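Predict both folds.
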Amino acid sequence: MTTNYLYNQTDSRAVGGTRFRDDALHPRSGRSVEFVPVTPDLPRTVGALRASGHVQRPVKHEIRDNLLAALREGRDPWPGIVGFDDTVVPQLERALIAGHDLVLLGERGQGKTRLLRSLAGLLDEWAPVIEGSEIGEHPYEPIVPASIRRAAELGDELPVVWVHRDHRYTEKLATPDTSVADLIGDVDPVKVAEGRSLGDPETIHFGLVPRSHRGIVAINELPDLAERIQVALLNVMEERDIQVRGYTLRLPLDVLLVASANPEDYTNRGRIITPLKDRFGAAVRTHYPLELAPEVELVAQEADLVAQVPRHLLEVVARFTRHLRDSSAVDQGSGVSARFAVAVAVAVAAAETVAAAALRRAALTGEDTPYARPVDLESVPAVLRGKIEFASGEEGREDEVLEHLLRRATADTARFALRGVDLDELAVAVSTRPVRTGERIPAQDVVAALPQVDALTEIAARLGAEGTEDPGPMASAAELALEYLFLTRKLAKDESDDGDTVSYG
């Protein structure tokens, strides 16, 4: 049985159901953590559990009841899920309320795994299990021979332990080498060597699905499972039992089985066998953010930014991603993932690259507070080129395509943010007094070089650069306006020998 570790309850930090004392260090810091096991004050025997009035519920009923309670109370059952409120979430909630196993169909990076993991939040925070049970059986209903025997021998003194909901969610990435033994189980040669006969059900070593009894099993990229392995799931989903090498053991499992798949795998390549598709009660389609605002929110929420990145630059990143999804130069069959914008995968992506460029510039120029500026966007195409698959015939034009789409995203963002602002005054002033920018030009120098015109006051107000003594926000706002004037051919610019950019009329 896994021990749950809790710190004192006044601190709300937690990682995967494992919580830490106030004086402990987070495990991702790479330093040692002192664990202090604490268990909730709950019944410790099956007799005490019955006396407490505890009612056993199947896992699907538990999820349904908790979901309905959250909806009645106005609580968000899906924290961190953005852009699905009116599309995916209602379908998902209806499927869960109906008690259906389900598969999420969607392109890469649409948040399918994030959505599946959020299902654990709909389980009861603590669930009773028989102490020492290999598959987490409910104390009222032992199902393996060893637990049935112990329950008969100990009666009301059968010991009970409590498992946190995070430990009742199990996730498996489907890979071609996944075996039936991994998912369902197999004969354990060690148990046979201990003297048990091959016909003894207690020689079975249970796989991932039985060990998730009374919990949620999520299989990512289900079509990647070999067809003969998919067959092993048929009994689990329909009869709710397992078969291992011809054993007559009937194991009534209580699981919610969910999966993810790309729609082309699910419908065109035929990688999910028909009987398994038929057993899913619901297929829910996901999508990329339909509007710009949710995409920007996703970037801000998910990106690990090492410097301040203003919203207008996050909008540039989001628009850049959306332009890539619509571009005929990009192979849309491979998908332009939301990961491209937030870099939750292996590579450093757009928003994090911009923040890193700002931090590097601060180190070079001695700025106290790194603050991202449009000049930092120049590093994005080179870093992210490897994350995009281009259409055939675009060989050699990859950088040109990315730079063109980035300029479009920048112009669209500036046009939207600065609509109604008279920028001609700024263009005229800069034509007589050029402004130098670049990754080696500190923000205070950019601000000092700006002309004193009323348009800059309005630009600062529109782009959140008011009310601060830090020159970073003003420099970032002004650079966006200057870049927009250049892109609309109202200003020219040139690159000096040292790499700086000079804007002039």
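Second protein follows, with its predicted structure tokens after the sequence.
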Amino acid sequence: MRRRRSVPWIHRWSRPIIGAISIAGAILTAYLTITKISGGEVVCSAEVGAAGSCSDVLNSPYAEIFGLPLSLFGCLAYISMAAAALFPLTINIEASKQLRKTLENWTWLFLLAGSTAMAVFSSYLMYVLATKIQSVCYYCIGSALFSLSLLLLTILGREWEDIGQIFFTGLMVALLTLVGTLGVYANVDQPLAGVPDENGVIAITSPDTPPQAPYGWEITTTSGEAEIALAKHLTSIGAKKYGAYWCPHCFEQKQLFGKEAFKEVNYIECASEGKNPQPQACTAAGIRSFPSWEIDGKLYPGVQTPQELAKLSNYQGDMSFKYKMP
């Protein structure tokens, strides 16, 4: 009498586990998508000051694809993975054994391709998170762990007849995903600015898309040491910059500083729909136009070049500023 070979527990439970992880990932990314579209703030750990970090990451240029939240595509991917993992289990194996087997074979290939693509894409985003954005986002890290878990469970969750099939399919999908990802993000680091002049100074350009509440436009220029030093000096003497997220000239002022330096500026948002709005403070200061600077108790309306701000604030540091008005 032949003894029936026992089935490893991972083979019996791989699909339900994959389905559970995919559903958890879909819920997480759906939350991020709804929050992004509604203009709300994600809930982050206050212990490490992550609220700002999460917002910086989830509102960076890398968080959108074709004008839509990246989390929306992630949600759709997780839903597809959950459906592929769980749908064959709804087929009665006693009544439709051949149909169940066919569905399992096809969906395993889909799960392999999908989990490979998600793992490769998540790996790239982790690289971006660590080297370019340099912020912590536990939602992003959690999603990356979900993607890696799905790939491992897909590979280990069944007895593959041909190991070469796993390698070839995974390699092809990984290469296509990497090429597509690099293509999508090819221009994300290009500053919204013109060509350097003979002195190496770059003229910024105005935005050509509508502002998105509550942040307006993403700052795309990179700060130099001079911009950062000037921003810190302005804050140290109590200078304030008043603006509104929808104001294109306010954005030009931000571009003159660059992303890193503008974080050091004491910025007050006057639009009630903007991030951390303080319209009462703007009214009390007598702000009539955007942007406006308050330096030593005096108001200076309009965009101020770094050189003008240096003169108004008696800044004596590095003056090798990178950007200028067109």
